[in-house]
Amino acid sequence: MQGHDSLAERFSRLAQETPDRRRVDLELRTLDVILSAFFLLVSLPLTVPIGIANLLSSGRPVFYRGERVGRGGRVFTMTKFRTLRPGAEARIGHHLGAELVQQTEPEVTKLGRWLRATQLDEIPQFWNVLKGDMSLVGPRPIRPRFFEELAEELPAYWQRLVVRPGLTGFAQVRRGYETSMAEKLAHDLEWIADRSLRLYLRTLGATAWRVLRQFLAA
Prior knowledge:
By secondary structure, the chain is mostly helical. The protein has one domain (2-217). Helices cover 56% and strands 9% of the residues.
């Protein structure tokens, strides 16, 4: 059976061999639960109007749901408010990195452009965090197909499986969307190696400041 395992499953076994970080991971998971529950409650007055506006402006579905590789190679469904035209996933889903950014631009709806600028499209991901699929801080989740490709290209890529993927992370705070995958991986590996309560809070603070500036500029 082992020979039929996916690359993500094989690398997930390697992830279990990393140094024991159970204490810090427990601390970060506790904060994930507390903060994601808080943010879900606070954002509730926005969630319903955004859902209705999305439905009226561009129809169904209101949410985007896509498979992503999580901790230990487990595949989960990530949820966001839909910001692209219906069917866009089938048209551009095979692109990655800077090419994806370029191909995405014509697919973004008018409401979606505002949601992306303010990052309000990310609100449903707090539910992913609360469920344990994601963390507030960590490497951004990636599609299973691209994980396979990048793990073949970048030997250290499997190490992303050590932690939960994040709503935000070092790569997002420090660099833009068009940063190369190798550069993003370097930042992700730095988080994985040095993750701590202090870095977690510092990254959340930097993200909050960045989102506030984007919201005011939108």
